[in-house]
Amino acid sequence: MSKAAKFSRNYRVESGKGFRLKDVDPGDTAGLKLEKDHAAELLDKGVEVLAELQDKLYAQDRRALLLVFQAMDAAGKDGTIKHVLSGVNPQGCQVYSFKAPSAEELDHDFLWRTTKCLPERGRIGIFNRSYYEEVLVVKVHPQILAGQRLPPELVTKKVWNERYEDIASFERYLARNGVAVVKFFLHVSKKEQKKRFLDRLVEPDKNWKFSLGDAEERKSWDAYQKAYEDAIRATAAPHAPWYVVPADNKWFTRLVVASAVIEALEKMDLAYPEVDEAKKAELAKAREALEAEKG
Ligand code: ATP
Ligand code: MG
After folding, report:
1. Whole-prediction pTM
2. For residue 3, what are the CA distances in angstroms to 12, 89, 225, 260, 287?
3. Cβ-contact 221, 190 below 8 angstroms
4. Which CATH class name applies to 2-292?
5. What is the rounded distance in angstroms from the CA atom of residue 235 to the CA atom of residue 242?
6. DSSP class of 100
7. What is the rounded distance in angstroms from the CA atom of residue 245 to the CA atom of residue 42?
8. Residue with the nearest Cα to atom 20 of ligand 1?
9. Which of 3, 75, 197, 224 could form a disulfide with 71 if both were Cys (CB 3.0 to 4.6 A apart)?
10. Strand, helix or coil for residue 64
11. What residues does each domain of the chain span?
12. pLDDT, mean over the chain
């Protein structure tokens, strides 16, 4: 385990066996009581390390990293993505936000729209929500499934287990193709969500973030928690781990996520491509020519 994994190792789930969401406290900060400034400083360091690793990932151009972010509303997905990836060269990373599917998307199998957005070799892909919505919001609201126009004989009691199985196979397939998958569930408490919703209602600058739909989804809190637990249990694997990240303290969420991303990149054994003898001779020649230039 690398040094960078210090903040994230306790929240890594790579086997669903015995996993219980209630064992992770959303308010946990691993005993750290950091001043705001100190937390920001630590994160800045992490962001720097991450940027260097990403540079190598890009130069090597062999592997890719897919980061999946899932959470209840107001858990801090957007802010975490913004802060953790702030140092990364925009050319080397792509963020996709998945909303309710369009008519065109509903005309295809459920993985179709996300497969189109997978990161190229050398890049980091970020899914802000993902194909996991298909076993979360769709499971919590069965009428959405009914609107997917699946052949009726395929919609049985087994449909959720089949989806878990398909997702797990898909992630194994990606791993076998050099795309590492790391999934984050930002675990916020119901109490903290209420506080953040109220902030959005009270502070004029945050009003735009509030949507009535979010308050509506809050009513299904327990069903969502259960759906998250089931999904994590069914799809956690060493090659596609989940991180269940305490999300009541934003500074801590960001440290944990940065630490997990660094660990995933460090595991790849990245290095700048080696230059062979012929190329070295070519470079020496080019240098000589440039240095011989007048002026
Ligand atoms: P934010 O609120 O911070 O902008 P968000 O991810 O909540 O970010 P919204 O536009 O509020 O974005 O919500 C997107 C909605 O789309 C969510 O309610 C989500 O459950 C829904 N959604 C995403 N994928 C699917 C899907 N496959 N089927 C049905 N609904 C989906
Ligand atoms: Mg929302």
Report:
1. 0.95
2. 15, 24, 31, 11, 40
3. yes
4. alpha beta
5. 8
6. S
7. 17
8. 137
9. 75
10. strand
11. 2-292
12. 95
